[in-house]
Amino acid sequence: MAAFEVSPFGVLLKAIAPDATSLSLADFSAKYGPAFFVRIAGSEVQPRRPTETKMSDEQGPPTGATAMFVLPVVKRRASTLAFISIGRLDGNDIAIADDSVSKFHAFVKEKDGAFTIQDARSRNGTTVNGETVAPRGDGPPTELSSRASVRFGVVHTSFLLAPDLMELARRMAK
């Protein structure tokens, strides 16, 4: 369990960048956790519904800035589950505020530093590197490797182990 309690909706990458540049890997992992999902989203407000792209010759108003949100793959203090839950609702260990994500969408398990993911029979599915993750009961979990592309519904994330997140934060801080 990470020593730093992060909202299940994540934290801005720039907020943890100072620790990524000053802490050792062991201290960073102890504070934030060993693995993360990183997503790019609007920096002002996280979308509740998938957005629609409109094509036209007219340039519309600016859409706003984007930011990288870090979602630590850790159990919340109140969690009693045997896995790390991912879903749309705040009661999950990791909450992704998008209507394409089911209330309980998927779950991650960690054993001896290796991570696996399984879909929780969500309505819009989960993929890893473009391959469909088997729903629970329909096949084995999918192994997660650092830098894997993971999609929950229409929400794209990257799975990063702590060393790769620290490297990304260092590059972004420059």
Q: What is the CA-based Rg, rounded?
A: 16 Å
Low-confidence stretches: 44-57
Q: Structural class of the secondary elements?
A: alpha+beta
Output the number of helix runs: 3
> How confident overall, as mean pLDDT?
85
- Please, how many domains? 1
Short key terms for the protein model shown above:
seven-stranded antiparallel beta sheet, 174 residues, alpha+beta
What is the structure about, briefly put?
By secondary structure, the protein is of the alpha+beta class. It has a single domain (11-49, 64-173), classed as Tumour Suppressor Smad4, CATH 2.60.200. The protein has helices at residues 13-22, 25-32, 162-173, and strands at residues 11-12, 35-42, 66-72, 84-87, 94-95, 106-111, 114-119, 126-128, 131-132, 142-144, 148-152, 155-161.
Describe the protein.
With 174 residues, this protein is an alpha+beta fold. It has a single domain, classed as Sandwich (Tumour Suppressor Smad4), CATH 2.60.200. It is 17% helix and 32% strand. The chain has helices at residues 13-22, 25-32, 162-173, and strands at 11-12, 35-42, 66-72, 84-87, 94-95, 106-111, 114-119, 126-128, 131-132, 142-144, 148-152, 155-161. The strands form two sheets. Strands 1-3-2-12-11-8-9 form a seven-stranded antiparallel β-sheet. The longest helix has 12 residues, at 162-173. The protein is globular and about 45 Å long. Residues 44-57 have low confidence and may be disordered.
